[in-house]
Amino acid sequence: MKPKLFGTDGIRGCANSFPVTPEIAMKVGMAAGRIFTRGAHRHRVVIGKDTRLSGYMIESALVSGFTSVGMDVFQFGPLPTPAVSMLTRSLRADFGVMISASHNHYADNGIKFFGPDGQKLSDAVEGEIESLMNNGLEDDLASPENIGRAKRIDDAQARYIEFAKRTFPRRLTLENMRIVVDCANGAAYRVAPTVFWELGAEIISLGVDPNGMNINDKCGSTFPEAMCAKVLETGDDIGIALDGDADRVVMCDETGRLIDGDQVLALIAQSWAKRGDLNGGGVVGTVMSNIGLERHLKTLGLNLSRSSVGDRYVIEKMREGGFNVGGEQSGHIILSDFATTGDGIIAALQVLAVIAEEGVPASEASNLFVPAPQILENIRFTKGRSPLTDEKVLSCIEAGEARINGSGRLLVRKSGTEPVIRVMGEGDDEILLREVVNEVVAVIRKAAA
What we know:
Blueprint: E1 11-14, H1 22-35, E2 44-49, H2 55-68, E3 72-78, H3 81-90, E4 95-99, E5 108-114, H4 123-134, E6 150-152, H5 156-165, E7 178-182, H6 191-198, E8 202-206, H7 225-234, E9 238-242, E10 249-252, E11 258-259, H8 261-274, E12 282-286, H9 291-299, E13 303-307, H10 311-321, E14 325-327, E15 333-335, H11 344-358, H12 362-366, E16 374-380, H13 391-404, E17 408-414, E18 420-427, H14 430-448
Parallel strand pairs: 2-3, 2-4, 3-6, 7-8, 7-9, 12-13
Antiparallel strand pairs: 1-5, 4-5, 9-10, 10-11, 14-15, 16-18, 17-18
Helix pairs in contact: 1-2, 1-4, 5-6, 8-11, 13-14
């Protein structure tokens, strides 16, 4: 049985190794192109990417696949994932593709997919693509005169910049605000500083010198220490750190205190609820969202609805419950009034709008609740069977859950994008949590050895 290509966020892995190879990319292009060829019109697909060296290789292979089945290809170059989603709709494309491994190390890469509505594909459609890749892929190739064309779209960045700025209230300005913007040497290295600068802010830029191998390297939302240190060093008002494809954001206030996705959700929910713009009676978080967020929302008469980890699952829960705000502690913030996927720049603009309107420092606007102690550990395992199938591991997890029952939570899960087991303990008794998490981690490490 062949390994399943698709994870929780498209196809992802080490570049030039299965499943992120030129052969797979070309086949994905051929299969997806055929599935999204509907009707007699000239079909088009849009492709964006981040700054990884392997992006050139994967992009060329995808273009070959799409054009071989008669699709025209619009290539954007480096552009945030949410921009690709937006431009898929704006350009009335039949399909959208983002080449990125998000917050991962440069050696990884991936392929994310969007339907014509700018939404990420369902499991069922991904299954169709994978099935077609394994059966009859070379059927119905385009005739020589119907092979697709490829074209660079030079103003894609400018289009997204204008779109992002329109989500910021026209009555407000960022004048007299000094902002550190860390772009992780990734897809937003040009557009993010420009958005905030054109709205009036003075910008101190970090992570804007990509070389193909320094994306997410001790910078960006995965390593926010650089942003926090720069804010303290230069006395700025706030810091903004994006990840490699700019679909997530974390921030810090003027004291260098981190503002994670949970605090961003709380701030936006409180602001939108006050002006009557919050739908669904609350927000969508995930099983990783801090219980402190849930407690704070209850004081506002709002609910926290939890989904599985992954922005696609957050979006599904938002649709089901009629929510327009959702996100993850890691910084994926989905604001469906503006976008169909997580957008770090737009989320940051909503935070800045509250600060600008209320005329208060970031520390006052964003410090809305005290998070409950939360202990996180990641255990990497080699390719093969997950340690979570081991009987001793399962028994240890069950015992740990019993120990903290009623006073907290124990969550153990496999990452959907990496060969990593994530262990999270949360509750008010930090000493007990540490003991339980350490025991579980030790047994998992032994099973993974």
